[in-house]
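Could you help me review a protein record that somebody else here produced? What it holds is a sequence and that sequence's fold in token form. I have pasted the whole thing underneath without changing anything:
=====
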Amino acid sequence: MTKTWLITGTSGGFGRAMAEQLLVRGDRVAATTRSLTSLDDLATRFGERLWRSELDITDNADIVRVVQKAVADLGRIDVVVSNAGYGLFGAAEEVSDEQLVRQLDVNLLGSMRLVRAALPHLRGHGGGRILQVSSVGGQVAYPTLGVYHASKWGIEGFIEALIPEVAPFGIQATLVEPGGARTDWAGSSAERAQPLSAYEESTVGAMRRRMAAAGLGAFRGDPQKIARAMIACADEPQAPRRLALGSDAYEALHSTLTARLAALEAQQAIAFSTDVDA
């Protein structure tokens, strides 16, 4: 059976790839973007099966309006893909207050707003699926991406708590954790803080030089394959809590979680020692 999908951030990257693949297979897509013209070619090819709207993910009233309009026009939404977001590069001290607030407003609060706006409709239709695009950076952290990581670690906590809350209504959710992919995420879509000379010879400067030298070729992920895997995940009757995509994501998550578990186990005695005496 065909499904109706609501996808944010469809002007490029994973969102665009998902929208096109879904339309090709015959599904309907409610696509939101910052620029409607970026979807003109898909509208020409697929006609009424593509519903599109501009959306300001930082404006809660706009999100509610767009979600309600999509449901009214299309009848229902089966899958919500919270994909809109961007990268912010800069050490903690380098990032401006404005950059910090905007990153959290888009990546964290924007995703939370979208899910909250969609939940009444999913409940009303007896269930549905949420795909929240997080990142390998939702569990692993690298220098120069601290605020970005804060946004992704934050949305992971929100979705983790949401999963048992909405399970009785037939709603399932998955945190999608891609590694580096050959999209524009680290290119013109990204925002960069003003570098401080004090960090030039630190791990921050080394990270900047390494990324500049490697370029797009440093990323292993194929956006089309990642989009295909996300669609396949939503088609499965049982949603995984997390979906790691990319060999780099798997390797980084495996090594990080293994080290974290070992560190926790080493603290067992001190943890138990702080309980109230029986």
Remarks:
- The two ends are 58 Å apart (CA to CA).
- The chain is about 50% helix and 15% strand.
- Residues 97-124 form the longest helix (28 residues).
- The first strand starts at residue 4 and ends at 7.
